[in-house]
């Protein structure tokens, strides 16, 4: 059984920088992480072991009990920053620069009189952060969500982990439904997302099965899963090496391996080692 890594996989620079900033803090017990620093259970366990407090994603409205609050790589709205600052909280900001760019483009478009159409996953923390700064906006997740809007100027931005193909299809549909409107598209999809999707799409066409490693609630990981499935390839999405089952690989000779941007290198290495064990086990049975 041959295991082939995707050309690009695992941590992106935004996640790596956020984690580095967190682990460099001298007194983690005095810091509350405002939500999930990254959507990966193994990483969250490591942060808890270090003593960090953490606000649950669904409980962000509650004020953290510590004076120091770490803003995650997904970012927050300016209104949320002001709320925390007004409560006397000191912010440690690890917002990914590409998420910050998305915020800036959406706000700039609004200031120029455009109604913002945001492509993204409803309820996702990154999406909520952007919408929290806009006076009026429309959120769409798919082409089916696009409907006529009573605006002459429309600006389209996308959550950073949106597949480019989804954004392109939505843009075409917006233009089709608004032939007389000024439609402006801002490409806010991050390069690491594009690279990982392209790598998975290429590899999925060359293997018998794809193993994709990442959190169950990691949007970018889920996009990789859907990308592989769209190529007609069998996919197994796992969070840890322990989830891998030998019978999944019976009759499979070429296994593709990919991971979301919040998957740490050591977790990926454990999955790869477990795949090697399973390959040796199945080979011994032949």
General description of the model:
The protein is α/β, with parallel strands linked by helices and 286 residues long. The chain folds into 3 domains: 2-9 and 191-285, 4-hydroxy-3-methylbut-2-enyl diphosphate reductase, catalytic domain (Cobalt-precorrin-4 Transmethylase, domain 1), CATH 3.40.1010.20; 13-95, Rossmann fold (3-Layer(aba) Sandwich); 98-185, Cobalt-precorrin-4 Transmethylase, domain 1 (3-Layer(aba) Sandwich). The chain has helices at residues 13-23, 41-50, 78-86, 97-111, 125-131, 164-177, 191-204, 219-230, 265-285; strands spanning 2-5, 31-33, 53-54, 68-71, 90-93, 115-119, 137-140, 153-158, 182-185, 209-213, 234-238, 254-259. The strands form 3 sheets. It has a 4-stranded parallel beta sheet, sandwiched between helices. A 4-stranded parallel beta sheet has the order 3-2-4-5, with helices on one face. A 4-stranded parallel beta sheet has the order 7-6-8-9, with helices on both faces. Helix 2 (41-50) links the parallel strand 2 (31-33) and strand 3. Helix 7 runs parallel beside helix 8 (219-230). The model has no long low-confidence stretch (mean pLDDT 93).
């Amino acid at each position: 059984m041959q295991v082939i890594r995707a050309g690009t996989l695992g941590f992106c620079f935004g996640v790596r920088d956020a984690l580095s900033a967190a682990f460099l803090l001298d007194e983690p017990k005095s810091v509350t992480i405002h939500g999930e620093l990254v959507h990966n259970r193994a990483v969250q366990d490591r942060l808890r072991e270090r003593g960090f407090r953490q606000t649950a994603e669904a409980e962000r409205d509650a004020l953290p009990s510590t004076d120091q609050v770490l803003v995650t790589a997904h970012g927050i709205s300016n209104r949320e920053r002001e709320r925390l600052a007004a409560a006397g909280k000191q912010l440690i900001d690890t917002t990914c620069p590409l998420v910050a760019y998305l915020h800036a483009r959406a706000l700039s478009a609004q200031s120029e009189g455009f109604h913002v159409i945001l492509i993204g996953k409803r309820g996702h923390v990154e999406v909520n952060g952007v919408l929290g700064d806009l006076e009026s906006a429309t959120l769409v997740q798919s082409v089916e969500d696009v409907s006529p809007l009573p605006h002459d100027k429309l600006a389209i931005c996308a959550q950073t982990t949106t597949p480019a193909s989804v954004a392109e299809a939505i843009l075409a549909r917006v233009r089709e439904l608004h032939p007389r409107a000024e439609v402006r598209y801002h490409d806010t999809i991050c390069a690491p997302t594009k690279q990982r999707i392209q790598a998975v799409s290429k590899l999925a066409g060359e293997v018998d099965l794809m193993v994709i490693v990442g959190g169950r609630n990691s949007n970018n990981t889920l996009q990789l899963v859907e990308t592989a499935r769209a190529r007609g390839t069998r996919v197994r999405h796992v969070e840890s090496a322990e989830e891998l089952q030998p019978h999944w690989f019976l009759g499979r000779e070429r296994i593709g391996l990919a991971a979301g941007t919040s998957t740490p290198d050591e977790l990926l290495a454990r999955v790869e080692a477990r795949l090697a064990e399973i390959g040796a086990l199945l080979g011994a049975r032949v």
